[in-house]
Amino acid sequence: MARRSTASVFARAYQRNLRALTKVTLSNSKRIAGQVQRAAAKRLKPPPGKGDWLSGMAVGAGGARGYHLFRPAELQLSPGEKLPLMVMLHGCGQTGRDFAASTRMNALAVRQRFLVLYPEQDRLAHPQGCWNWYERRSGKADAEAATLMAAVDQACMLYPVDRDRVAVAGLSAGASMAALLATRYPHRFRAVVMHSGVAPGAAKSSATALGAMRGKNVPPMPTTAVGKAMGAAAVFATLPPMLVLHGDADAVVAPSNAGSSAAVWATALGARPGMPRAMQRGKRRAMQVTDFKRKGRTVVTLCEIAGLGHSWSGGASALMFSDPTGPDATRMAWAFASAQFKVVAKD
Length: 347
Hints:
alpha/beta; eleven-stranded mixed sheet; 9 helices; about 40% helix
């Protein structure tokens, strides 16, 4: 009888533990499922901006990539009217929606009447969501650039885009990919904006990318060497004008990359630097601005921002890689691009 009683006690204890474990497991499963659902809902929720957040998918040499296009609400277009397009390439750890929310480019697009394209890196292509701008030796970077151009082409076909007024901007890995796009397809972009990116031509593989982020492997300055480092498309005077923005407190991508990017691009364009000037608006961070000119025209502008880390300058608060205390990089990027659009219109 004692053996039976002992067995019964263990059996009842086992059943109680099993029921408790099942209850906890079900509770955790519901909680995890809820977190997944909320994360998915947030990802699908359109970012701020009065307009349409339109989804699409482009297929190219680098595989398939999703994208979103922001179209301002209540656009009143004249017959045959086309609008400028700003291509925005997010940084590592971001999505297109994150980048839109941080930069608030959509709100500016509503006021200035232009379209915004946000390509999305696939996590299977890079687990951290980085663009593979550095995989040039393997050909992966060029293939990914071709897929991004497929997204741009698709946007131009589906929406009222003026192909002569397209600019590309990016943050961090997105900035480096923006520069790569401009060197591979120089006639497709009228302006390129690099924010906290690595100097063009400084990396050819994942092994050299880390060194490049630390400010090493900068291409030599002679024009022929620059063209070789950046690619065959980087022919003298064919590249679009470039705006470079970088914080001097960036601990992720060395601030020296800013000066190197501007110098490499200006050398390829045959431009010379002017005297740096200090600028500050209100209580925002100060910056040092250097213009590089060719035949009296500014083709490269370098903005080095005091105290800014690895963040979009002037971005929305409480978001990753976004610093509201810096100069408004969104306005600066659009002002630089629109100035190039006007030059093209005059030509």
